[in-house]
TrEMBL record, chains A, B:
SMART domains: HTH_ARSR. Residues 24-119 form the HTH arsR-type domain. It comes from the Bacteria. This is Helix-turn-helix transcriptional regulator. GO terms for molecular function: DNA binding; DNA-binding transcription factor activity. Keywords: DNA-binding, Transcription, Transcription regulation.
Length: 119, 119
């Protein structure tokens, strides 16, 4: 079985079929790997978790520097990687940037990892 | 909310609580990031998918080099990263190594990514 799946847009939240159902095309793998690489770093994983656990599932950079004990510049860099991967949104209000989870983005990754029998 | 979750073994399939339920401890984040980093690379994602889609959900290195168009040495290196991350098992039979999915490993990652409302 080496079915080639449809090539989907890089930013599509609907990419891709479950990983264990069919062999994955090179294009799908490249798109997906970007997202997993973004969360394959401890600080970014913690930042994602901190944003999600924050009141209203939205957090200001100013809320995130102390829990991870890093400078605002470093935290902003990691948050940008998560935004570029389509996992967080950024909105600017006044002097601060606020970050929130992209609805469905993590659930979509979960669906791709889940084995069909467990769904 | 900055609950510190229990620190679990690196190789435990039960690590960790869902990412969006509580802020994640530094230790949990480090353990988990290793697994996501392993699949945050297009060739490794394809190899994982190829192994899963292969008959009996097990594949020989000799089955995997052609689909990804890479040398056996490169493919073996990527497979080792997936084994070290606890996602594949390796068993040697005769002159070949066979790789299979670790039961539940991908489902465990899926559970961690899933938002509680979608469970």
């Amino acid at each position: 079985m080496t079915t080639v799946l449809p090539v989907l847009d890089l930013g599509s939240d609907l990419c891709c079929a479950p990983i264990v159902r069919d062999a994955m095309s090179a294009q799908d793998a490249a798109n997906l790997a970007l997202k997993f690489k973004a969360i394959g770093e401890p600080t970014r994983l913690r930042l994602l978790s901190l944003v999600a656990a924050h009141d209203g599932a939205e957090a200001c950079v100013c809320d995130l520097t102390e829990p991870v004990n890093l400078s605002q510049g470093t935290v902003s860099h990691h948050l940008k990687v998560l935004v570029d991967a389509g996992l967080l949104t950024r909105s600017k209000r006044g002097t601060w940037s606020f970050y929130a989870l992209v609805p469905g983005a993590l659930d979509n990754l979960a669906d791709i990892l889940r084995t069909p029998a467990a769904q």
